[in-house]
Amino acid sequence: MVTLDRLVNVLGSYGVRLRFCPIPRSKELGSVVMHEVSGTRTVTGDVLMAIGARSVAEALQWAVAARAVVVLLRDEGATESTFAGMGEGVAVMVVDPSVSWSELAAVVYGLVLEGRETESGRGPTDLFALADSLAEMTGGAVTIEDPLSRVLAYSSMQENADAARVATIMDRQAPEELREFFRQRGVFEHLADSDEPVFVAPDEEHGLSGRMAVAVRSGRELMGSVWVSCPKPLRGTELASLADGARTVALHLLRSRASADLERQVESDMVLRLLDGRADAAAAASRLGLPLAPMRVIAVQASLGHDRDAALLLAFERATTGFGWSRPGRSALAGATIYTLLPGEQAAVARKWVAGLRAALPDRVTVLAGISKPAVVTDLPAARQEADECLALHELGSSTVPPAYDESWDEILLQRLRTAAQSGRTPDRGPVAELRRHDREHDTEYAATLRAWLEALGDPTQAGHRLGVHENTVRYRLRKMAELTDLPLDDARKRLAMMIELAATDPD
């Protein structure tokens, strides 16, 4: 099941345009058909792909006969007047000539037939219905989990349910102490190496009534596991049902992954086009389901020790987990950085999003992030640069929380100056350079004194407080500094230049 709005948004990236829409875009679509007459009965469905129709009129005639509410047709000569005065009550989507029907059919069938939402986020399947079916066949409450013990689905049947199951479902993941218990019993090691179900005996301390677990695998890849609450090992048909069910779950997850990857690809391409300024901003934002109100760009990098790729891909998967447009942000992966467009003007909301992403990743993963100032869709290319600079600032360790540009613009500016200074683009002569040279050779603190005096706006008392010395010491140092170099303290422009040079070359 998918809404017309989502169908329009996704197919827009494939060269399909909504040209006439007499029905609400919230209309739900649950089936796809092509023009076909079986015996004396016309095959019916919500979306008709009018392959072979010779005109708009013929395609609409087919759609009405099929009781469709949406028709996809190819008509290179269609103009606005073509759709004027139409009264069939069918939404018309026109397919670009460069798009093949074969390619488009795969996308449409994937979206409409495989678009049911599950607790796992995206998915072409109803894993909850499958969990219910497995529970009936095995006689115990069922949970389906991913490789990190996060709950993908669970049965409504509560036979042999226990406190451990309740905690797992409530937290959407098996509690750490329960995972450690299974780890010590060798359960996870068994699931990683074997396709045979394993039994875990009851344990009162962990609120466990007993479990039968089996790996969900595609080839050699462990995709998850199925857990059945049972006080003793399953036998006979119940055990066979569990093993067969695990293979069915694997097929569901593979199809879900394919559907998710398709949606990620469409979303990522559109987000990057917005960030690069290559897209019609308003149209692209509409297709992504983003408001035209201000939003923030979040730049994220993730690593696990020296391994960046695995952590980054896992972070991108978590950032884009969620069915359709249910997620608050839209994300793209570019190089070693994840970019997310997050509606809202408050930096706290963006930091909360980053914290949620971090919490969804393994404990050892390091996450760095930078946040732009609020920007409308036409300003997103500039906001991307702001997010990148804040990310670099976070990487330097100057802040424990992700910096936001509107709060840290001064640090960004100073960092730019430091970068320029490190490339050798600062004067090696002049007051500041000569005072620094004297400090190195004679172990004096003249450069620090000059900076303190400038920051105190020429007040020797305040400068002394900053340095931890008496104000007379400041006056004495200033006299000695004036003997060493031309110190133009009465020239406002030169004072500003000296402050900039000091800020650019001081490590803090």
From TrEMBL:
InterPro entries: CdaR-like_regulators, CdaR_GGDEF, PucR_C-HTH_dom, PucR_C-HTH_sf. Gene3D superfamilies: PucR C-terminal helix-turn-helix domain. Residues 279-392 form the CdaR GGDEF-like domain. Residues 447-503 form the PucR C-terminal helix-turn-helix domain. This is PucR family transcriptional regulator. Belongs to the CdaR family. The lineage of its organism: Bacteria, Bacillati, Actinomycetota, Actinomycetes, Mycobacteriales.
